[in-house]
Structures are given as C-alpha cells and as structure tokens.
C-alpha cells in the first residue's frame, strides 16, 4: 500500500470558526506544488478533512491530477483527532494508493505512528508538506517514509 499524507496549504489566520478558514493565494500555490509531486503516481482515492482549507487543498490536487473520482470527506481527519482512530478507519479500506488531506497536529503524529510506532515521534509537516509512505498495511511502525516534500523549501 502507498499512503500519501498531505497537510493543507496556508490558510487565512482567522475566520468565524477554525473549520471555516480558507486557503490564501500562497496556500493555493503551495497545494499546487505538492500536487505536481503526485503527477504520474496512481491514486485510488482522495479523502480530506471536512474543514474548508483541507477540502480546498484536496480539490486543487484532484483537478491538477485530472483525478476522475470525487474527494471523500473523512470526519476523522480533523486537527485534534486521534491517529489511532485514523488507523482503525483505514483498516477496513481497500485502496492501494490513497491520499489523505489533513492538518497538524494529526498529520505529523499519524506519520510518526505509522513509521516509528509512536505518535510522540512526529514527522514535521509545514503547510502543504507531502509525505509518501509505503508498506503492506497501514499499521503502527510498519510503514516506511519514502519521501517528504516541503513546498516552502523548493
């Protein structure tokens, strides 16, 4: 299985609610840079947090890749969700190439859990960072971090 983890692009600093923050112009550019890293890689599905900035990021990636499926909404991908809950939800899925679009601190802790077996050993994710993980199944400590792309550093 190949699991791609993408943090949303830069978002507005404020909105009525955190979940309503939209991408900035810079965040859109970041998301498109990360989408370019996915070009040529097959995807079976795209799942995103219900938060506006994650949905916008996922939709930009979907359009940039010409992905014909729709973006699925996963209520278990919000900033403060438990990475172990994410693993439980992933356990029943059958995609072999899946993109998750989410937030900090969840995404860093999830990557740490999958790669190192511990969510306290988090992987650093700035906005629009894209991680490529590979393994037989998404189980704590059994996936390998293949690549980590930070658009701000490119």
From TrEMBL:
GO molecular function: protein histidine phosphatase activity
GO cellular component: cytoplasm
Stretches that traverse the bilayer: none
Classification via Gene3D superfamilies: Phosphoglycerate mutase-like
Pfam families: His_Phos_1
Domain of life: Bacteria
Name of the protein described by the UniProt record: Phosphohistidine phosphatase SixA
Organism: Pseudomonas nicosulfuronedens
